[in-house]
Specification:
With 103 residues, the protein is mainly beta. 14% of the residues lie in helices and 37% in strands. β4 and β5 form a beta hairpin. The longest helix is centred in the last third of the chain and has 9 residues.
Length: 103
C-alpha cells in the first residue's frame, strides 16, 4: 500500500543476522497529520499529530509516531536510529556503500 505523501526517505541496505547477502530497503517518512480526537485509540490533546514510518523492502510493519503537534510528530519520526536499533536482533544495517550503519 505505502505512504501517500512521503516527505523524506533514506535508502539503506540490510542483511538478516547470520547471512551475508545485503538487500536494499528504504525508510519512508510520511507527512505529519493532525489526529482526530474522536478517532484516536488513546486520549490526545487538541493539536496532537502523528507521522508514519514505513520500511519499504523490509518485512516490518509501519510505525505510527505521535507528537504534541505536527512539528513534534515529524521530529520524532525522522530520528529513525532508535527504531532501527530496535530491529538489530534480526538485521544488520548498512549505508548504500556497504559500510555498517551503526558503528
Amino acid at each position: 500500500m505505502g505512504i501517500m505523501n512521503v516527505i523524506a526517505k533514506r535508502e539503506l541496505l540490510y542483511s538478516i543476522k547470520g547471512e551475508s547477502t545485503q538487500r536494499e530497503f528504504t525508510v519512508n517518512i510520511g507527512a505529519p497529520y493532525l489526529l482526530e480526537k474522536e478517532l484516536a485509540s488513546f486520549n490526545c490533546d487538541p493539536g496532537a499529530a502523528s507521522c508514519t514510518i514505513e520500511f519499504d523492502g523490509l518485512r516490518e510493519r509501519s510505525i505510527e509516531v505521535h507528537g504534541i503537534d505536527l512539528l513534534h510528530a515529524l521530529q520524532m519520526a525522522v530520528d529513525i536510529d532508535p527504531y532501527l536499533k530496535g530491529m538489530q536482533n534480526k538485521y544488520n544495517f548498512y549505508w548504500s556503500t556497504g559500510e555498517p550503519y551503526f558503528e
